[in-house]
Amino acid sequence: MFPAARTRRLRSSPGLRSMVRETSLRAEDLMLPLFVDERCDAVRPIGCLTGVEAYPLDHLPRLSDELESEGVRTVMVFGVPRRKDAEGSGAWSEDGVAQSAVRALKSAGGLNVIADVCLCEYSDHGHCGVVRDGRVDNDSTLPLLGRTAASLADEGADIVAPSGMMDGSVAAIRQALDAGGHRMTPIMSYAVKYDSALYGPFREAACSAPAFGDRSGYQMDVGNRREALREASLDIGEGADIVMVKPALTSLDVISDCRRALDVPIAAYQVSGEYAMIMAAASMGAIDEERSMLETLTAIKRSGAGVIASYYTRRIVAELEVTQ
Ligand code: PBG
Ligand code: ZN
User: What digits encode the pLDDT tens for the residues 87-109?
Assistant: First the structure.
C-alpha cells in the first residue's frame, strides 16, 4: 500500500517550498542591539562576539545612515559609561552615554530607537538594582528606573525597555513617563528573563558583570514555565506594551505559551551566548553559520515571537534584500 497523502509533493522545488512556508523573517521583525561606548574614540570589536562592534558617540550619525540604507529598522541602545558609581547615576544623567546616543540617533535619521533601562551598566557593583546590605533592594530601585526611562524619552527614545527584572518596574516607569509628558512612549518589558549562562559575552561587552554574587535573586529560574505567564501578565497589568522573553532558543515553549495566552506583541532576544555558540561551532567547521542563523531565527519566530533582537540583524536584513 502506498500512502495517499504525500507531504513531499510540496517540497519538490524552491518555488513550492517558499509558497507554502508558514514562517518567514522580515526586516521589520528584527532589532539590532547596539553598544555605545563613551570610553572609546574608535569603533572597537567585541572580543567574544565576532563581527559585533561597540561604537563611540561621534560615529552614530554615520552608523545610522549605514543601517538605514542596509534596511535595518530598529536598534536597541546599550550604553557603556566612562564612570560608574554605587547608585548607577550615569543611567539617568542628562549627558549620560545612552541619552547622548538616543539624541544622536534620533537626529540622524529614522531608525526606531529602543532605549535599555537598567542600572547594571552604570553601577560599580554591576547589579540591576540598588544594593543595600549586600542585597539588591527592589523598591529603592524603582524611582531610579522611572527617572532613567523619562530621561531617555526626553531625548526621543521611541520605546523604553526595562531589563532588570525588578518587581513593579513597569508601573514605576509608566508613571514617570506619564508625569514627564511621555504618555505615548511604549514600554517593552523584559518580563521573562531567565538567569542564564548565555549572557556572558554581553556582560563582557557592556562591562556589566556583577562584582559579587549573581542575578538569581531577580532573574527567573530556568526550570519554571508557568511562572513566565505570571511575570508577563503582571507586567501587562502594570502597562507593558510589548513583553520580551530571553534567552530565545532555550525558551521556545515559553514564547509559545505567551503568544497563545497574551494579546500584546511578544518579543524574544537571541542573546549574546546564543550568537557566540553558533559562531564558535561555525568557526570549528562543525555547522554552517548562514543556515544556522536563519534556522534559529525562523524557529524563534515560528514559536510565536513577532519581534526578535539579534546580533545577526544586519546580516539577515542584507540577506533579505538580496532574496526579495
Ligand atoms: C541586564 C541585561 C542582560 C542582557 C541585556 N541586559 C543580562 C544580564 O546581564 O543579566 C543580556 C543580553 C545578551 O546576552 O545579549 N540588564
Ligand atoms: Zn541590568
Answer: 999 999 999 999 999 999 999 99
Do the strands 130-132 and 112-117 form a parallel or antiparallel pair, or are they unpaired?
unpaired
pTM (whole model) above 0.85: yes
**Domain with 299 in it:** 24-323
Beta bridge partners, 116, equal 161
**305 SS3 class:** coil
What total of structural domains would you count in the chain?
Answer: 1
What are the cell numbers at 249? Answer: 532558543
| Atom nearest to 196 CA in ligand 1 | 10
Which of 119, 148, 163 gets mutated to test ligand 1 (max ligand atoms within 8 A of its CB)? 163
User: Is the distance from CB of 238 to CB of 174 less than 8 angstroms?
Assistant: yes
| CATH at 241 | 3.20.20.70
Question: Does residue 6 fall inside a structural domain?
Answer: no
Q: What is the pLDDT of residues 196-208, one digit of tens each?
A: 999 999 999 888 9
